[in-house]
Each structure stands twice: as C-alpha cells, then as structure tokens.
Amino acid sequence: EEGAPSRRGERSEEGPAESGPGAAFHMFVLMEDLLDKLKLLSYEEEALRRHNMRPLSRHYFALPTNPGEQFFMFCTLAAWLISKAGHPFEQPQEYDDPNAVISNVLSELRSF
C-alpha cells in the first residue's frame, strides 16, 4: 500500500491527520512499550535507585513537561543501557553540555 510504513516505527509520507484518528496517540503507545521494556530490564532497581530518581510515568517522554529534566533522564537511561550492553560509559551529569552528551552517546552507539 502506497504511503504505508514499510517497517515498524517508520512514518508514512502523510501527516498525522491523514494517518488515521489514532495517530495522535501513537506516541503514548510507544512510551508505554518503552516503559514495559525498561521494567523487564529492572531499570527501577539498577538505574533509578543508583541516582535517587523517581520511576517514569506512562507518559513521561510523550508529553513535554520539563525538557531539562526529561533530557537528563534520557541521558541517564541511555548511559545505563549502553553500560548494560557491555560498553563502559560514564554517567552524564545534569549540567553537562547537552550537545557533548548527545555526541558521546551517538559515538558510543556507532561503535556497536
């Protein structure tokens, strides 16, 4: 079918209005899937308790509430996942340069 995603997670050429009535809620479904996968990896015990952070809500990354806090949580989880995959990765600090942090994360992911 023309315009349909060819693989899971890919978006079609059409905008959200043309994709169907549920397209606006797709990000919430993705966030719930992410949360389920993180729970399977015991992120609460291994990542959050170590940094004294609260567990994620079902909509944490789906709604832009506090970009600085959300970015730091993303970086914390990314560093934890990279380390869990067997690549030592230094935990970013809250006030590190965001561009440098993302560059380091992407560089480490490319080395996989």
TrEMBL record:
As for subcellular location, the record says: Cell projection, Cilium
Which GO terms of type biological process are on file?
A: intraciliary transport; non-motile cilium assembly
Region Disordered: what ranges? Answer: 1-21
| InterPro entries attached to this UniProt entry | Intra-flagellar_transport_57 (IPR019530)
Q: GO CC terms for this protein? A: cilium; Golgi apparatus; intraciliary transport particle B; microtubule organizing center
Q: Which UniProt keywords apply?
A: Cell projection, Cilium
The source's domain of life comes to Eukaryota
Q: Which Pfam families match?
A: IFT57
Start-end of Basic and acidic residues biased regions: 1-14
What is stated as this protein's family in its record? Belongs to the IFT57 family.
Q: What's the protein called, per UniProt?
A: Intraflagellar transport protein 57 homolog
